[in-house]
Specification:
Order of helices and strands: EHEEEEHEEEEHEEEEHEEEH
Number of helices: 5
Structural class: alpha+beta
Bound molecules: zinc ion
Radius of gyration: 18 Å
């Protein structure tokens, strides 16, 4: 079993409209855009990062807004719901605010003793806010969302799977422990990690497979402290038979990727170096940052990217 994984690092999804995605996260949800850069493989597409003040691992939702992309088809083999933590008592505020902003899919429930408000993102993304203890986390305060209601970071994620068995075994190998079962959902939690420590596996046998598109999660990234820990995790996964990519420099973290048995793409990302490596904390997310190899083409890239509100 691996002991280096510390909960979630980031979740990366796909969107259609960049400006709409940007305003949903910064204005409706009151998160901070901590980086504005481009897709490493498609520099005509933004890569937008939203999180807390500094983009603490475990708080970072990232997007590739591809433009005229069809919506994804929800189903099995994907991250069905990305869950954010909000302080205890904050859900009535959010229910009213999201309603006022025209957000669809609002529904409240209680899962394993936690109050939850589900809602849709702009492309039908599956989201939920879960009332949680703050555990030392603080929301971004440069917004009209009051501090006692602001998003603290991820609570965790819920996977929709046709067969949860093998993914559960993988999570166990990664250091997660089975914590509770409720109907067809099994909760896994990692001890000693960050506060984004929950994964729920929802098993629906016979359900149709998801089709990726706008509003779909592209991959889910788990945090390790540093590159040495990442190499240990990589070796352990490969020794277990997983086909893991080489280490890739993503400018703000180092990444490795592999496909989980249930179909979800996993990444292991380092907490170092972080989003302040090329911008100071006060100005995170303000300027367009380009991977070094695209810097000579900046003028052309900037001409084609749609404008975003601050
Ligand atoms: Zn990633």
């Amino acid at each position: 079993m691996i002991s280096e994984i510390k909960g979630l690092h980031h979740v990366t999804s796909m969107a259609a409209n960049a400006a709409e995605n940007n305003s949903f996260f910064t204005q409706t949800l009151g998160m901070r855009r901590v980086k504005k850069t481009v897709n490493f493989d498609a520099p005509e597409v933004y890569h937008l990062y939203y999180g807390d003040e500094v983009g603490t691992p475990g708080s970072v939702m990232t997007y590739f807004p591809f433009g005229q992309m069809p919506k994804g088809r929800r189903g099995t083999g994907e991250v069905a719901t990305t869950e954010f933590s909000v302080p205890q008592g904050a859900l009535p505020f959010w229910k009213e605010r999201l309603g006022n902003h025209g957000v669809t899919g609002l529904s409240e429930d209680n899962f394993l003793g936690e109050a939850r408000l589900r809602f849709d993102g702009p492309d039908g993304d599956g989201f939920a806010l879960v009332e949680s203890d703050t555990r030392g986390r603080t929301p971004w305060t440069g917004t009209d969302v009051p501090e006692d209601a602001g998003i603290l970071g991820f609570h965790g994620a819920r996977f929709a799977l046709r067969d949860a068995g093998a993914t559960g075994e993988l999570l166990g190998f990664m250091g997660y422990q089975k914590e509770a079962v409720n109907g067809n959902v099994t909760r896994y939690r990692i001890e000693g990690g960050n506060a984004a420590d929950t994964i729920d596996l929802e098993e629906t046998r016979g359900a149709r497979a998801a089709g990726q598109g706008a509003g779909s999660v592209h991959h889910i990234a788990f945090a390790v402290e540093n590159r040495a820990a990442q190499l240990e995790v990589r070796k352990a996964l490969m020794d277990t038979g997983y086909n893991v990519t080489p280490v890739i420099d993503r400018d703000y973290f180092w990444a490795i990727y592999f496909r989980a048995p249930g179909g979800v793409l996993f990444e292991i990302a380092t907490n170092e170096p972080g989003f302040d490596r090329d911008e100071d904390t006060a100005h995170l997310g303000a300027a367009l940052k380009l991977p070094t190899r695209y810097e000579p083409h900046r003028a052309q890239i900037e001409r084609h990217l749609p404008p975003l509100s601050a």
